[in-house]
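In full, the data.
>
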Amino acid sequence: MCSLLRGEEMCLAQLFLQSGSAYDCISELGELGLVEFRDLNPSVTTFQRKHVNEIKKCEEMERILGYLLREVKKADISLPERDVNPVAPLPKHIMSIMEQLQRLEVELGEVTRNKDKLQRNLLELTEYTHMLRITRTFVQRSVEREPLQAQYEEFPFLEKDTMLEYSSMQRLGAKLGFISGLIQRTKIQAFERMLWRVCKGYTILSYAEVEEYLEDPDTGEPSKRVVFLISYWGDQIGQKVKKICDCYHCHLYPYPSSNEERNDVVEGLRTRIQDLHTVLHRTEDYLKQVLMKASESVYTWVIQVKKMKAIYYILNLCSLDVTNKCLIAEVWCPVDDIPTLQRALEEGSRKSGSTVPSFVNRIPTNDAPPTLIRTNKFTSGFQNIVDAYGVGNYREVNPAPFTIITFPFLFAVMFGDLGHGAIMALFALWMVLYENNRKLKNTRNEIWNTFFEGRYIILMMGLFSIYTGLIYNDCFSKSLNIFGSGWSVKAMFTEGVWKIADIRGNRFLTLDPNVTGVFTGPYPLGIDPIWNLASNRLTFLNSYKMKMSVILGIIHMSFGVILSTYNHLHFRKKYNLYLVFLPELLFLLCLFGYLAFMIIYKWLMFTAKDSRLAPSILIHFINMFLMQGDGMQPLYPGQTGLQVFLVVIAVLSVPVLLLGKPVYLYWLHNGSNRIGMYRGYERVRRNSEEELYLMRAHDMEEGSGHSDLSTSGERPTEEFDFGDEFLHQAIHTIEYCLGCVSNTASYLRLWALSLAHAQLSEVLWAMVMRVGLRMDTTLGVLFLVPVFCLFAVLTVSILLVMEGLSAFLHALRLHWVEFQNKFYSGTGVKLCPFSFSLLPSSFEHDGLL
């Protein structure tokens, strides 16, 4: 809990790694994920570092593994379970892994190329078969139309005037030729126009569409093709036709000159296609065997190569000592994990067989350590909410432990509905129960991943919504009468207040709680269900929720101001308690805390009998600042004097907040009693890096610039700038004082969102569900089924998803702006430990794993 509240205590340490055991030591540290390495060679470029060749080999192996994974995925072969976590291979085993991958790549490449070649040949033979079959129909139709011209049976669609032209061309020595092939269906119209324009009518084009889809050899996608046959006169026209066919990427095939030749070609094609099918089937079987064998080890290779590359990357961050026999690394490490770090170095030295052990040495530093906050699967979601605002400074109070309660509670105040909260809680509970399911964890749907990672947040929001739904007594816009209403209509008749004629002559009647027996007492839990039937229900709930929002907001902001004391005490800035914390708290409580007091006092002191005499809190609060109100009825005796006193205290706290800290720091730096003192406290011997850091690095955050306490004690004291400190404090004072007003008003969103959610739920019930329930015919039951389905869909999509997201965002804003800015700066740096489990993988990003 201490780590979650303030983060781990960090230290800077040096690792002395023997050259022979450095690889194994880094591997052990990568498995543990304890430390963050610093770059000791910032002036050396990436390509000039020692292990750049090893990293290039790892990148080459990653390229081969990417090729293997793409082929395995293309073949629809499932990878084995990912439970294996192999250790990083030794450097001497890198070449053997490289040779295996290269050999597998060459073999797989040859088989793949042979398969592609066979498929292309099969496609060409299939297209040639379709061409011969369809062009035969051209010739048969031509013979049927011109039975007397048997000598020109190979010429399609030959008409009489064309015969005369042909005779003329034959006398001039022109030669009749044919070109046949296939073209994409989308290009045939443009192809036909081009032939007509270029060849001046000396060609005849016949075409027909192939019934089945054929695979495009370039893209691999199925497409429609058209078979065409072009008859032309003369070699020059033939050359033009061939060039046009090349421009339109036509697949040309030889056209047989006679029926006998056509039959021989068709028979030969049939035999070759059968042989190709057999060979292709065997090739695919062999390819599948190769891929199945590769898939058994590819995941292990991916992990091993990723670890090897990461280790060499870390080794490039280290520096050599003067003897070139030892590597020196600097790491940020939690103080509590120093023994574990030492054991990991000893284990790495033992595995490598080194006779000289590696060891760790803590060193002092002036640098601000990174922030490490340990989380589990429950607290990680709430910590991510805080980190999205900003990573906390080193050892600063972390809002996440309090956010675990306050965030779902404020969400539930805006989302309060028993039914909707139960649906949300059940959905989150299902995700929690099946959180180890790989299909749920490893999906690539970003929206689903967002919901799944926040399953515990959703569960808490659902449970708190159930609670606030019980308080509001609201379940799908209906109230639950569990304990029986505290209001009775019978007493109005018993006491003779109402008559039968009153009921018949009035649509609305008012229950008088002053009549004996009408109001027997408050409802045991939440709001009385009779308010769901009242015509003034909205007025009552508006008043209740608005005042409740103001009270919750003031409590939330006051709690944030109180949490700042933990920072002041921990960072040894006790003067901030008197010059910052106390004025802030007095200003907030004397004005807005007094407002909450008046609300509660009015609730407790005024009953139904004297409710008409109750004064307006808003008018009294305004008159408090105007120093007026003598002619008005006071809320309690001595109200005017107390209000004047509170306003004076609030006004006086502003100059204290503005000038107190800058003047004190100026006196501290220029006073005569600074010898042997630091900020008014005697300098004592420090036993931890944290204490040294507290006396030094955090001064920069307050603008005081006390950095005279260096490790050696020889650093010169930085000059104190009163102007900078005063400007910083002035901005803080203006922001805080104005923020108290705006932040209090901002909490009214709790009332607004709660009202909007309740009204949307009521509208949805009245316009959808009530329509189906009012049908009293036999078909009413059948009609109720689609009505209920529509009601369920609208409830989930609008009230749960859209309204839930809206309430989530508003609760997020209340925590970031109104709560955290009272004590949380969020300008730190998060610790990025060297851990194999946290390393990103390009294969997972590309969906190959």
Remarks:
- The chain has 26 helices and 13 strands.
- The two ends are 36 Å apart (CA to CA).
- The first strand starts at residue 10 and ends at 18.
- The CA atoms of residues 561 and 585 lie 7 Å apart.
